[in-house]
Amino acid sequence: xxxxxxxxxGPKPSQTRRPGERPHDAVSTRVVLAMQGVTKSYxxxxxxxxGVDLIVPEGDFxxxxxxxxxxxSTVIKLLIRDEVPTKGVVLLDGRDLARLKRxxxxxxxxKIGIVFQDFKLLPNKTVRDNVAFxxxxxxxxxRDIDPAVDRVLQVVGLTGQxxxxxxxxSGGEQQRTAIARALVHNPRLFIAxxxxxxxxxxxxxxxIQLLLRINDLGVTVLMATHNAEVVxxxxxxxxxxxxxxxxxxxxGAAYHRED
Amino acid sequence: MISxxxxxxxxxxxxxxxxxxxxxxxxxxxxxxLALLAGLIILLTGLDATLDYVQQEVQVVAYVKDSATAQDxxxxxxxxxxxxxxxxxxxxxxxxxxxxxxARHPDEADVIESLPTNPLPAxxxxxxxDPNDYLDVAxxLNGQPAVDRVMNIQQTxxxxxxxIGILRIGGTVILIVVGLIVLFTIVNTIRLAVVARxxxxxxxxxxxxxDAFIRWPFIFEGAFVGLLGxxxxxxxxxxxxxxxxxxxxxYFKVLPVEASxxxxxxxxxxxxxxGAGIGVLGSYLSVRSYLIR
Lengths: 259, 293
Known about the structure:
The complex is a heterodimer.
Chain A: E1 31-41, E2 47-57, E3 61-65, H1 72-79, E4 87-92, E5 95-96, H2 105-109, E6 112-116, H3 127-136, H4 142-156, H5 171-183, E7 189-193, H6 201-216, E8 220-224, H7 228-234, E9 237-242, E10 245-251
Parallel strand pairs in A: 3-8, 3-9, 6-7, 7-8
Antiparallel strand pairs in A: 1-2, 1-4, 4-5, 9-10
Helix pairs in contact in A: 3-4, 3-5, 4-5, 5-6
Chain B: H1 2-18, H2 20-57, E1 59-64, H3 70-82, E2 86-92, H4 94-104, H5 109-113, E3 122-128, H6 134-142, E4 147-150, H7 154-196, H8 198-206, H9 211-239, H10 241-252, H11 257-291
Helix pairs in contact in B: 1-9, 2-7, 2-9, 2-11, 7-9, 7-11, 9-11
């Protein structure tokens, strides 16, 4: 994927892609994520999703919205294969997640970068080490780690803070560290689960700008959020969940139904 | 592969010191248990040597009638020597028995010297390959006309074999119990370490670390605990070598000094193996139940 080699986020991703990679436009019809008739009920009887169909083509930017308990978290758990659907199929990059062998689960998770509301950084590691950790624990070669970390720190604009600890950073910088860590594997799908939930509006806006830039670089982004202001302002595809069903799937929509 | 091992070792080392107090407590338990293990091994080795010694010494003693002729006796000797159970046959004549008695009991020399004739019978002393064959040989001898009677030491042999058998089973049971206690201690320690690193493990899972990367640092950490415990135990045994050796030779009398060097080496190897093994097994179990949820 082209994005990590970008020194500065360019407007045209095709200019920064490496040899041998397919141009952004040519793969735009490829499907990164497909959910078909997905129902998920938990052992306690609660039905979190009911017959959800969702197709996300490569390069898409999707807001996943809906009230608490609508099923957003369950969708994310299914995508990272923390859960398997009770019924239906979840395909990530063409692979049926429910049929993965146990030992293949880590491999598929490397195709996903994920950030959360609470950042999930390791407080005793520097920004650089937090990002490098994702590569270390997946068996990257030592000499490959530093350049890769440098690249993603540049993308999120944290080169200057590389040697600081998370406690010394602002909330926005912490989230950007988490984003860098999620990007360092060149993910096929970038998931942001309420990434701005702990941030004030101005900083939230910076994070959204960063996610949009990452999307411009060719990475498919799925963002679950409550932030109506952002969703309405950005005018990207909005998938709304309610009671475990998709009640709306519109491009360029506002957070609330415009009817 | 090298980076995986280096990563795991580095993390194990950090983990050991991060939970310093717990790790030291676990190490101390390991030391305690390994010392017990070593003590049991030393004790059982001594008992085994005693058993070997006693078994070698088990003889069938048959008293020969005074009326038996030299031909009867040599015939009997020859037929005994043909028996597969028999390793050696010694004939002790009346005179020899008399001299042996005097040598053993010099205080009672005047008693026996006052007797008009030598009351001691001649005997055949038969060494056995296996003390369990005692009855076969004794039965054969009882049927011989030249034999007066066969000394009944069957009971003594039986008792000795029983006692040593019980000690061996008892020792093994104690070892198993002790091993389980150590296992639980290590499982607990490593589980605490796992819980302390729950955040890291969660991140590792999210970024797609394979189970091996999550598991092996903890297994190495358990191995550290086990090996450190083993090293301390061996150090303690080395310091206590003098008293242990004199205990072995004083108490069991039969253990040759050369043997105790080999015993020491074996004990050291077993302690190392048991320490590492139990550390690895304990952490494997505790991480396994954590990973498979």
